[in-house]
User: What shape does this take?
Amino acid sequence: MTAAHRHEGVDTTDPRPRPAMSTVGSSTADPPDAARDLGWDEVRMARAALVWLVEPGHRALGRMVREHGPVETLHRILGGAVPERLAKAVSARLNAADPMERAEHLAAETRRLGCRLVVPEDEEWPTQLEDLARIAVDRDPRSDPHTDPPLCLWVRGGAAALTEVMSRSVAIVGARAATSYGAHVATDLAFGLADRGWTVVSGGAYGIDGAAHRGALSAGGVTAAVLASGLDIVYPVGHTSLFERIGTDGLLISEWPPGSSPQRHRFLIRNRVIAALCRGTVVVEASARSGARNTARHTHDLGRMLMAVPGPVTSSMSVGTNLLIRQNDARLVTSASEVLEEVGLIGDDLAPVPRGDDTPRDQLDSLSTRILDALPWGRPASVEELAVASRITPTQVRRTIPLLVMTGFAEEIGSGYRLNPQQPTSAKKSTKTSDPPDT
Amino acid sequence: MGYARVLSIGLVGLVGRMVEVEADLSAGLPGLTLSGLPDAALSEARERVRAATVNTGLTWPNRRITVNLLPASMPKHGSVFDLALAVAVLCAAGLVPAGLVDGVALLGELGLDGRVRPVRGVLPAAMAAARAGVPQLLVPVANGREAALVPDLAVRTVDTLAALLDHLRGATDLPGPDRRDAAPDIDAGRDLAEVIGQERGRRAVEIAAAGGHNLALFGPPGAGKTMLAERLPSVLPELDDESALEVTAVHSVAGVLPAGGGLLRRPQYQAPHHTSTPAAIVGGGSGVPRPGAISLAHHGVLFLDEAPEYQPAVLNALREPLENGEIRLARAIGGTRYPARFQLVLAANPCPCGERGGTCLCSPTVRRRYLGRLSGPLLDRVDLQLDLLPVRAAQLLADDLQPATSAEVGRRVVAARRLSTSRWAGTGHRLNATIPGGLLRSPRWRLPRAATCVPERLVDCGTLSARGYDRVLRIAWTLADLSGRERPDPGDVAEAVDLRTRTAP
Assistant: This one.
């Protein structure tokens, strides 16, 4: 784009976007030129500016954005036409710099860091995050004002869309000062989940978080680290190489703009995103006063599946998890398959678990039909007997029959096979879903 | 002249080391003192050598004789030094000229009549001689062909002490070894085609051979477990030169090399009885340990019939060699290593009574305890575990009228191994059996979800363990190799799922 083109058309002296009359996302208003160069529309600019102004999850701001859209909200804030509580929250930053300038700077930074900004108007926005708006209503505002859904997310890595990666995800969280037991279990769970195509989500801390990421990475699966600082700031520094691997093979996610430092209260704000992204949260080890219990509370409030790994009653690092099982209706889990048993049952709107779909009999190929016709009702038949009855070689029978068992046509008794009394019915519609991407 | 020195070779495990036998004659009470850590058999050499010398027509020197075996710190055992000892004493006494024994290593046991008898371990000894640059090796006639397996080594054979002395006096020349090819050691009469009706078992043998997988067969008596195990070697590929030399050397040290002493080209089959001791299985014995059944089965098959009946110590002793391909036996007198890269075949009845069908009276506890004797760590190393049912008439009908012969199956096995060798080149592995599960699940080799949905479902249901899942993957790769596919397809994985056991612990 030439310099001449950059200066025509739009009044660049006024960085404030016009109030959006149309709904967000479909706005046709021209964004400021500098931002358009970087591929950011005015919605993105507005959201980035808002995040810079107010700590994420602010309830009053969130409500306003939902009602009026981000562009209009920013406009009102800049014009001072906002409730007092919100005005107080933005005043410190507002006086420091021009939010639109900052947003332009962030756009450039984002591109420089190789990240992208994902906003709710995008196709790939994980809509399950909007559930946070529901729990934000009931909370006492003074104790926890930052429970609203994120306004936007900075994301690095991952060829696949965020929705797709997060549609089947489980959070594994726990103490930083994990024992070898906790680290072992976290690694094991993450490995098992990632191995079966599930995404593992955790923070970026030492201990359980790190173990979970390593387990998922060693299974060749997708793991996502939700950070409480800008994506350009590595915290803790000892996880530099781990974050690099996650940035390559998995996802680094943050709702803080680049340059934000990891402050103590931000970890608590961040926890609600981990809980809301996933279909369930597993707490592996937690002391009585652990941040993981905060994530567990959000999980419970969101109605997501809360799971905990039990530990020795003598271990202080398992006091929190044991208490979750005892008091907070956390499900006791000990293995990846038990975790899948829990999260596979909820969320019909999300992608189904990778189970074989019931296929009506008429969809079977001729080989399967011939074997099915040969299967007895009563005494199970061995593969060799089936081969005689169906006039197919034993090898072919063996190559086919486990699939018939999985789809529910046959059942396995001892070393033989027979018809399953509960044949799959064709009434069940074939919900053939696309298989998860193979790595 | 009262001193002479002759070369011989001693063995420490599979490694031959040059030994110098020196003799000294001095004034004093007549007698023979032997030093240099001899064992009982070697100490008895005094009497054998004396009688043999006298019966050959020579006079035994009535002097004080001291014989020392160098290096004195290395323990020496057996009768292999008899010949060297006799020549050293006779040279020291001046009864034969010493000039011709310079640079000649002598091996052989002497009978009282002066005949030279065969000894164990000639092949590793000959290899040591070649390594040490000894120009000539003298061995008993019966060991000639064995010594001749080592290239670039001049071998002469001797049948009596008299002939050797004639040679040393320059009267006659000793013959070289018989280099005619020994009869090929093909194990005729054990062909896979003879196992009728047990199609599942034959398929398992083919897969085990192709992928190098260890095999466990569970089934009632009469299901054909032993027949199948005996036929596994017949479908394994022939050993290459290096492997064949290793195998032959172990058999030579153990003294079980078949008469004729040719190179063992076929994979060996060992089936020790279930009462065997740990020492018999993994090697042992007093002094320097001798190779056991697992080393004799090196590059071959070790079959443990009625596996739960073996002592737990025996079964657990197999774990380390299964992992490392060798056994390290440490003894106070000195440790030794024997190769033991064998393919394990286990067979077991589902319960102690072994009755088929409905007549078994064993309680569930008894049955579980019986198979529970096969420890988890041992079964973890057995990729292919399957149940065999007694042959029924239907199976006889289902079977091909002409099942594939061992030769046909062997050709498929060779082709499959060629595929797996080229695929795993660079990973340090050749056979699918040794591939760690992590590598199979790594992004490069992971199978598409469409192919693995069946075993994954079983894992989710809890009827297949994580290790069982890895075993299914390994077998699926071998099935793909056997059908020449680049990667396992869903059918291969499904067949691997079917070929698993339901009765094992």
Summary: Residues 406-424 of chain B form the longest helix (19 residues). The CA atoms of residues 81 and 107 of chain B lie 6 Å apart. Chain B has a mean pLDDT of 86. Chain B has 21 helices and 18 strands.
